[in-house]
Amino acid sequence: MTRTLGFHFIQSFKEHEISDPYKAHEIGLKWAEKFIGDKFQYIISTHVDKGHVHNHIIINSVSLAGKKFYANKQSLKDVRDFSDEVAKEYNLSTIPVNKNAVPKSYKEWNEEKRGNSWKAHIKQD
Q1: Which residues, 6 or more positions from 10, have their beta carbon under 8 angstroms from its beta carbon?
Q2: Under CATH, which number does the domain 6-94 receive?
Q3: Is the pTM of this model over 0.85?
Q4: Residues in domain MobA/VirD2-like nuclease (predicted)?
């Protein structure tokens, strides 16, 4: 049985919109405070290696009080909503919600990225 030890979120910023990694880290901390508060342990790593500044945020799947973090549609919506809220506080752009988008699992997204998705092959054909 595979246990989920943590959850990985990536908070990206539009290229050239933020050049200061310290500001990006501050924004990541503000997002984490709004979304997680002191309920779960987390770590934020700010990267500048891809031509745009971005944060990797890892959340422990179980709180110190023994409560489990549930990644579901509502919690993922909250992730986005809080990120957009913080972005607006800093006058940063956000990505409009695509109401017609069909959500993909991480596995499907990863397989498509590698070129191994049977669904993507059928869609392309």
Answers
A1: 54, 55, 56, 57
A2: 3.30.70
A3: no
A4: 4-92
